[in-house]
Amino acid sequence: MRRRSTGRGRFRTPLQGFTSTPRPLDGVPPFVWHGSIRSPEIAEQAAYYGDGFFANHIYWPKDHFQRLIGIYRERYAHYGHGTPEQAIVGLGGQVYLHRNSQEAVREFRPYFDNSSVYGHGPSLEEMTEQTPLTVGSPQEVIDRTLTFREHFGDYQRQLFFMDGAGLPLKTVLEQLDILGEEVVPVLRKEFSARRAAGVPDAPVHPALGVTGASA
């Protein structure tokens, strides 16, 4: 069902006949995530409402995202939504996969070097050392991703940036196949096994009847 909306607000231009799709499933509002790559104000906003905070964990060192997530967890508890450990956290990450790690580096380097974001700056090796960017085999991606819990605590959502740096569609689809077949199933199992007691499951629609952290 589609509904057309018209209205005015304080923070954007008026909506005239705007159609919002899809509508909330079964009339249940979706879980809300507030995403940020650099703004502590977004962490504060997410904490105030008791919503999820998604730290877009790319481009910057882990210390930066530890600060943002730390602010969110502390303020989440301050506003009475639960303990800091019960706050709902999501992380980003960027990977380039090949079943052979040397081939992954060889294939990705030209895209990296000519990227509008990465190119003409720190080297690929420097960026993979200093930021969450991971270029390598499925096992290397699994191992690196599992270290995120050590830096940020237990968290509920892991998303991956797969089509950056100008990768062609065919390559992106190949990347998704490897991710889905060899990486995600292992991460789901490991996230579930390692989650501390009292940490909430990932938010899902009530009708799904399933729980668990997901990658």
UniProtKB/TrEMBL annotation:
Keyword Oxidoreductase carried by entry: yes
Entries under SUPFAM superfamilies matching the protein: Bacterial luciferase-like
Record carries keyword Oxidoreductase: yes
Domain Luciferase-like, chain residue ranges per copy: 3-151
Record-given protein name: Putative FMN-dependent luciferase-like monooxygenase
Pfam families cross-referenced by the UniProt entry: Bac_luciferase
GO molecular function, one term: monooxygenase activity
Cellular component terms per the entry's GO annotation: cytosol
Organism: Nonomuraea dietziae
Coiled-coil positions: none
Gene3D superfamilies: Luciferase-like domain
Keywords, ordered alphabetically: Monooxygenase, Oxidoreductase
